Amino acid sequence: MIEAIQARLRATVPALKLVGDAVGFQSAAERTPTVMPACYVITLGEKPSPNSLGNILIQQVQASIGVILVMRNLGDATGAKAQASIEALRGQVKDQIFGWVPKAGCEPLERGDSNLLAFRDGCVWWQDIYVTSFYDRSKQ
Predict the structure, then answer these.
(1) How far apart are CA 120 and CA 29, in angstroms?
(2) What is the pLDDT of residue 125?
(3) Model's pTM, two decimal places?
(4) Axis-axis angle for helices 80-97, 2-12 (nearest 10)
(5) What total of structural domains would you count in the chain?
(6) What's the whole-number mean pLDDT along residues 82-104?
(7) Hey, which bits of the chain come out as E strands?
(8) 36-72 pLDDT, tens per residue?
(9) Which letter does DSSP use for residue 34 in this model?
(10) Domain that holds residue 95
(11) Is 36:70 a contact under the CB 8 Å cutoff?
């Protein structure tokens, strides 16, 4: 699912100069990314509901996906100008994945919480959370 979201953003949001994953996000968190605007798509968690049948296990699983954007506005040490730019970028990302089905068997992506992660080194770090659900079924 993560790879499908990354591929869609790479193909449809040309303003993104980098689309990465959790490993890339870890590296970026330790050292500010050199290529921006950057986007990292990561699984934040999965929450299964109780089994709905007796003999066969079937659980609906709610998955939370973090889409983290990092943007810098050169000459803006505080990140205030970057904040305005990131709003436009967030809109472009939302236009491409909100309501989109990332994988067969999944529900369309819905909006979850959004929050500012950090202002650091003149960069704005922003996270939008998208939520989907799917069913896990036992093989027995």
Answers:
(1) 10
(2) 92
(3) 0.89
(4) 110
(5) 1
(6) 93
(7) 18-20, 38-48, 58-72, 110-120, 123-137
(8) 999 999 999 999 998 867 777 888 999 999 999 999 8
(9) S
(10) 2-134
(11) yes
Residue 99 backbone class (left: φ over 0; alpha: ψ -120 to 50; beta: rest) = left
Structure-token match 């770090």, residue found: 125
Q: Has residue 63 been placed in a domain?
A: yes
Per the prediction, the chain carries an average pLDDT of 90
The answer to whether position 58 is within a domain reads yes
Residue 139 resides in a domain? no
CATH number at residue 100: 3.30.2000.10
Residue 78 counted as domain residue: yes
32 contacts: CB under 8 Å, gap ≥ 6: 70, 72, 120, 121, 123
d(CA 125, CA 8): 21
The distance in angstroms from the start CA to the end CA of the chain is 25
User: What is the side-by-side strand order in the sheet with 58-72?
Assistant: 18-20, 38-48, 58-72, 123-137, 110-120
pLDDT tens-digit readout, 116-134 = 999 888 788 999 999 999 9
